[in-house]
Amino acid sequence: MEATLDRPDFFVGGDWRTPAGDEVTEILEAATGKPLGTAALAASTDVDAGVAAAHDALRGPWGRTTGAERAEVIRRFGAALKARGRETAQLVSRENGMPRAMSVGANGFAPAIMFDYYAGLAAGLDADDVRHGPLARTRVRREPAGVVAAITPWNYPQALAAMKLAPALAAGCTVVLKPSPETALDAYAFADAAAEAGLPPGVLNVLPGGREAGSYLVEHPGVDKVAFTGSTAAGRAIGEVCGRLLRPVTLELGGKSAALVAEDADLDVFLAALPEVSLANNGQTCHASTRILAPRSRYAEIVDAVTDTVKSLRVGDPLERTTQIGPLVSAAQRERVLAHVDAGRRSGARLTAGGSIPADRPEGWFVEPTVFADVENTSPIAREEIFGPVLVVTPYSDEDEAVALANDSEYGLGGTVWTADQERGEALAARIETGTVGVNHYALDVLGPFGGVKASGLGRELGPEGLAPYVALKSVYLPPEAR
Ligand code: NAD
Description:
The protein is α/β, with parallel strands linked by helices. The chain has 14 helices and 20 strands.
């Protein structure tokens, strides 16, 4: 099986391209640390070829398609992704440690849902939109934004790529997808499905590569729009370049979101949701509610309950159906997370669960799900994105302080409010400075715009709003109609 996981070529211009260089990445299975496969990494010449192919496709018949024509192709593409969904989901779990039960939804089937949704919106772009104003008639045309550079991280590699590909193709753009080296293998599901669905050559090009290839792509003169998901540090660097170039960019970045547990919260509801809301994908989730804000009146009860819940989570092989916490993506990520845990220990916070590598999981990149209580909101473990299974609990005295603590963060991506009073919960949610927030629930949906404020990013993906960045508006002024 291992041999079939090697991907030595890139997908460029509808064909398999032999890499210009010889840089290859070896992907190790997250649960065992053993080799899973290899993938070629793009050099600048490969990126040039990808952008040129995307450019040619845009100038070719694809650039003249109607939205309705594209909708058909996008639906076929989505169906081809869906057909290999279980296989892709399993591959991602092996690459990045995501429990398979979650990966089947997030990586296996979510992309097809997004492809179907944006296929549905594509035909709407064809509508003749003529506006009769006081000075002229204006025909508003919705044209493709052009060649899109889509750069994605390793944590939800299929869903995050689909959030860009589906609206980009619906709008008539062409795409160069640069996935992370850590999840280079699963990215080929897009190439395989595109070939099978008959996507015209060059409309999608897949070139795994590292940071250098990414930054070369962002600056490339042939790129018209950048869509990035990843760390805030990389997002800032990309934003600076795009600012200089005046190149449109969407940035989906890091987070450090709060779970505000109100005094009247039903703890059973909160605890049942906790693994998914705060520790999804082993904590490797940008919108996770990892800062738990607990009222002083119920503080000990909440710390004990969160600790017991986290200690009860089943840590293990991500491919096992019952596993709730799998390994982290890499040895380097495990080191980073353990360094945060050490910083937490030194900060004087009280470790109530986890804190180490599980004794029965020395292989692979496991970290015990961990809880720190009595954490000051000024402490680095309350401020920095850890991106592992580490929660902090901070007490508050009243609602205003809870809201202030939730908002006292560089980030603003997710967040949740837990209360027996749904209406009061929505009022609290309205006071939280964030791009998304859940009340007694948190789940992304294809219809809901997703994205951050502050250092969590710029722009939105999903929903009709997620299509707009890929559409270039052109106003064609026409003479007023004869009266
Ligand atoms: P990362 O920023 O290191 O890398 C992300 C991608 O960008 C990779 O493909 C990488 O090769 C590329 N890259 C890195 N530096 C670049 C540069 N200067 N120019 C161009 N490309 C560059 O992030 P990661 O470690 O892969 O992913 C984890 C981060 O992603 C976390 O901070 C997480 O919060 C964030 N994330 C955000 C969202 C969101 O929607 N807001 C979703 C998932 C992950």
